[in-house]
Amino acid sequence: MDATVDALSSAYLDFVAAAAAVVEAKEQSGGQKTALTEAALENFKQRWELFAVRWLVIELQHGSGPVVGSGAAHNSASAPFDARFSDDSAP
C-alpha cells in the first residue's frame, strides 16, 4: 500500500509542477502561443494522464472503481474521469 500511495503522490506532485510550468510559460510569452507554451501544455497533459491512470488503478484495486456498464453514479473522486469520458455513457 505504501508503494501505491508513494506512486500516486509522486504523480500528483509532477502534475502540480507541470501546471505551474504552464502558468510560468504563459506569463513569459505574454499570453501568446509559443513553442515553450505548447511544450508546457503537452507535458501538463501527459502528467495529468499519468496521475489519472494511477488514481484509476487505486480505485480498481480497492473495489471502488467504476463498474463498466452498470450505469451507477460514480463518487466525486472519479468525477474527472466522468467528465472526460462523458460521451461513453449511455443515456
Automatic annotation (TrEMBL):
This is Mediator of RNA polymerase II transcription subunit 32. Residues 69-91 are annotated as: Disordered. It comes from Platanthera guangdongensis.
